[in-house]
């Protein structure tokens, strides 16, 4: 796995394919492999696909203490050198939005999936705080909570809860969730100038779809699409989300 030094330590990232860059930014409690490995072949025929791990995930440098969006966005930016398309999922959508607002010269097109602007309602806060408490204290319940809030009921029923249950929380999960609870990018979203597609999921029980709709409303000129999926749309609807991204990034 290639590395680059940023902020005093190594940032690990994957790289596949050829052509202009496409950077895929993972979400809380995941990493480049668990979120995107199955999707990379669907883009590698037309893009150089770059999949960074940020602090708290994989082997990327983690300085300890509270995580910040500044650190994560800087680590992602360090993984690519030329203007690229940027896709972010969940916390990755927040990181990607920050990067697009503050480093517009790096971002050609932007796709934000299942993101949020700030801790706007008690439903989102309750879900995140419960997730954090289980990650810290109850591994068995943490493993069950993932399928419960991460996927739609129909998908869990068709696949089986056992196949979807996570193991022990990755080491950085708790601090990433704590960052989720502090997110507030409302002042950044109106500054985004890259063509942007926002994707929401109608059966999202972790980050309800209203948050994606609010993100769309805040990004000037953005487009919006919804999929009939739970939060982890990358695994629940991989063909559909791949098709949406491919169509958007290949427009002339």
Automatic annotation (TrEMBL):
SUPFAM superfamilies: alpha/beta-Hydrolases. Keywords: Hydrolase. Residues 22-243 form the AB hydrolase-1 domain. GO terms for cellular component: membrane. It comes from the Bacteria. It comes from Nonomuraea gerenzanensis. PANTHER family: HYDROLASE, PUTATIVE (AFU_ORTHOLOGUE AFUA_2G14860)-RELATED (PTHR43798:SF33), MONOACYLGLYCEROL LIPASE (PTHR43798). The keyword Cell inner membrane does not apply. This is 3-oxoadipate enol-lactone hydrolase/4-carboxymuconolactone decarboxylase. It holds the Pfam family Abhydrolase_6. InterPro entries: AB_hydrolase_1 (IPR000073), AB_hydrolase_fold (IPR029058), AB_hydrolase_sf (IPR050266). GO terms for molecular function: hydrolase activity.
